[in-house]
Predict the 3D structure of the following.
Amino acid sequence: MGHILIVEDEEPLRDVLSQHLAMEGHSCDTAENGEVGLRRVQDREYDVVISDITMPRMNGLQLLREA
């Protein structure tokens, strides 16, 4: 299955998404904001990035542009 990065500032939502996708057989990494998400993308290749749009520090659109 795919390797997915979930970038979400709300921990409960981040955890639920990660758990659900893991139950479907995917490998998931998480990040609590766009800056951490960007570092993860720079360190590793992902099949899919799921990102919140509105986050502190760096929003999801900025993250995806920089990635």
In short: Helices lie at 11-23, 34-43, 60-66. The mean pLDDT is 95. The two ends are 22 Å apart (CA to CA).
